[in-house]
Every structure is written in structure tokens, then in C-alpha cells.
Amino acid sequence: MTSIPTATGTIESSDLGRTLVHEHVFVVNEEYRENYEDWDEEQKVADAVRDLRELKSLGMDSIMDPTVLGLGRYIPRIQRIAEQVDLNILVATGVYTYNEIPFQFHYSGPGLLFDVPEPLTELFVKDLTEGIADTGVRAAFLKCAIEEQGLTPGVERVMRAVGQAHVRTGAPITVHTNPHTGSGLVAQKVLAEEGVDLRKVVIGHSGDSVDLDYLTQLADAGSLLGMDRFGLDVLLPFEQRVETIAELVRRGYVESVVIAHDASCFIDWFDPEAKAQVVPNWNYRHISQDVLPALRERGVSDADLETILVHNPRRHFE
């Protein structure tokens, strides 16, 4: 077993239980919120507690929350919520960018104006080993992104820093990818160059693709396939998402599959009412209520689902 930090303390990997590997609690631009958002902190926290308690009641035990710099990570709010729910919340460190890195790191680093060791790597390692800010909460995993823009200099710098932090700490990695550009393969290449064990990597948003050749290539290199956007039917319809997983299981790749919604209690990217109309199933309930029954109908056994929900996330940390 392996000890894993959560928002409320350390658990053993055997205590993860059924785990959704990519769920945000809040995605909020804190600078925008402070200046423009009509925000009721107590109500937002209460809503999140309600949603996460419901998720627990539906049979889930843990979520991995990949909300990092660039997505509005604010650990004190997550702590308040985690203390009120019987659900493990694992937080992350990293940077979410499709292009440039934040200006706080733009001029400092190897060969830059202020020529110092990579500050991103040092920051990530500190979050993983000592804690985030003064909260006492340690990150459990690392997060980076590569989108259709490809391997820009900023994206590459973050990704290599994530790889270096993994090598120093052993912490697993989640990568936001765009499967339509094959960026998961690019991420694997860059991370492997930094010495990353690709078995410790989730290639996020793989579930947006039905390209089985691409998906099995990622899996054959050792990584887990993040089939993690259930409810975002505007990106790929529900039927295709579940059928892709069922076919992967038929082909013997059940140990390569992890699932989630990429949902949140609140996200400030969209008007809440419009979001509810366009993606009505994009919520924490969808997998328990709709996806698991649909997978069973397609021949995915309860043992297979146990592998996907319990054993694969546990192995990701062990």
C-alpha cells in the first residue's frame, strides 16, 4: 500500500475505493471573482457539500481534483468542503495552460533573465512534499496540459517540470490532452524524455475519441486512458463514449481504463442556466446513474467495473 494525501489528511491507497479520476470542485478565476462576480461564498460551499454528499451516496468514495494554477485552485475552500463530506478529495499541483506560462515564471528559469534552477519544478515538489501555501494540504498528483495548439514553448516547459517533479517524488501525473490532434502521444514522448514512468500517467480526455488505434497505442505504452468527460455529449455522444470503453474491454484493455465526468460544483466558464440546457448530463450523478448501467448492457462485467473504478486508480498511486 501507499500513503496518499487528501484535503483532510493522509489515507492508504487501499482506502481510495471507487475513484473518479478527473473531477473539479470549483473552477473559478479568483481575480475575476474578487472584482466582478456576484459571489455568495457560504451558498457556494453549501451547494458543493450537497453535490459531493450525493456523489458519495451514489457509491463513489474518492475524487481526484486536477484544479491547478490557471484553473483557480484555492485550497482553504476545498478544506472547508472536504471536512463536511465523507469523500476523499485528492488535490493536484501543476499549471494549466495551452500556450504561455504565467508571468510569475516568465523571466525566471534556466537561461532566462534570472538564471536559476527551474522554479516550476521546485514549486511542484514543495506542493507534493511540504504542502500548498500554509494550508498543510499536500498535493497528491501532478497536472499539465497540451491542447490543439501543440507543444508550445510554455506548454513544453510546464510538462518537463511536471516530469522532473514526478522523477523526484514518484507522484503520478494527469495530462489534459486533445485526442483529435494526437497530443497524448506527444505528452508521452516528452514525459518519457524526462524519465517519467508512463504507467504513472493518465492521458486525460482520451474518452473524447473513438480512434481505437490511437487509444491502444497510448495504452500499450503503459498509460491509463482517461475516459473522463461523461456528460459532455456535445464533444462526443454518450453512446459512442460507452461503446468505446466496452470495445476496449473486449480487446483486453480493462486495466488501462479510468473514468470521470470532468464536472464541477461550479465553473465560471459558462452561464449556469445555459450550461444546464446544453449539457444537462454534465454532473456528478451521470456515471453512477447512466454510464455504469449502459456499460453492463454492453457486456462489461461488475468485475471489470471494479477494475476500472477501484484497482486502476489504486495502481496509479502504488
UniProtKB/TrEMBL annotation:
Any one GO molecular function term: zinc ion binding
Binding site for Zn(2+) 2: K143, H176, H205
Highest taxon of the lineage: Bacteria
InterPro entries per UniProt: AryldialkylPase_Zn-BS, Metal_Hydrolase, Phosphotriesterase
Residues forming coiled coils: none
Residues where N6-carboxylysine is found: K143
Keywords: Hydrolase, Metal-binding
Keyword Metal-binding: yes
PROSITE patterns: PHOSPHOTRIESTERASE_1, PHOSPHOTRIESTERASE_2
Cofactor(s) this protein requires: a divalent metal cation
Residues that hold Zn(2+) 1 according to the record: H22, H24, K143, D262
Cofactor note text: Binds 2 divalent metal cations per subunit.
Keyword Hydrolase listed: yes
Family: Belongs to the metallo-dependent hydrolases superfamily. Phosphotriesterase family.
Record's protein name: Phosphotriesterase-related protein
Lineage: Bacteria, Bacillati, Actinomycetota, Actinomycetes, Propionibacteriales
